[in-house]
Amino acid sequence: MAKKKANILDFSAVCQEILDEYGTEATATLKEVISEAADHAVALISSNSRKRTGAYARDWDKMQNLASVSGASYTVYNVAHYRVAHLLEKDHVFKDANGKVIGQWKGDGVIADAQEKTEAWLESEVRRRL
């Protein structure tokens, strides 16, 4: 931002102009950083996912949502294995036809861990850039 010179009568207008410039810069920066954060989340989930065949880990992607106030909103999702993501993430039990518990699955929490790390990364990156 360039330095502005103004007399006391134009002070309000100059302040408003400076704030408008900052708002425009901040919005553009947020759009860029949020897109990078979605890429960061996809990379974290892909690298830490189970890799029996590798298809589940490869199929993570991001999708831009409809326009929001900041102009940037993304959803990270698994393209082909979306039904399995919840089962691998959370603990659950196996039951037989009679409802008797026959086993238990321990979830790995990869998605929640990636969300926490991405939120921390996003906050630090926004602070750094603004």
Structural class: alpha+beta
Q: What percent of the residues sit in helical stretches (DSSP H or I)?
A: 40-55%
Q: Please tell me how large the radius of gyration is.
A: 23 Å
Largest sheet: 2 strands, antiparallel
| Count of helical regions | 4
Silhouette: elongated
Number of folding domains? 1
Classify the beta-strand content into a percent band.
5-15%
Arithmetic mean of pLDDT:
86
Strand order of the largest sheet: 1-2
User: Spans with pLDDT under 50 lasting ≥5 residues?
Assistant: none
Order of helices and strands: HHEEHEEH
**Separation, N- and C-terminal Cα atoms:** 13 Å
Work out the number of β strands. 4
Write structural notes for this entry:
With 130 residues, the protein is α+β, with helices and mostly antiparallel strands. It has one domain (8-129). 54% of the residues lie in helices and 15% in strands. It has helices at 11-48, 55-58, 82-89, 110-129; strands at 60-64, 74-78, 92-95, 101-105. The strands form 2 sheets. The chain has a two-stranded antiparallel sheet with strand order 1-2. Strand 3 (92-95) and strand 4 form a beta hairpin. The mean pLDDT is 86.
Brief characterization of the structure:
This protein is of the alpha+beta class. 54% of the residues lie in helices and 15% in strands.
Features:
130 residues, alpha+beta, two-stranded antiparallel ribbon, 4 helices, 4 strands
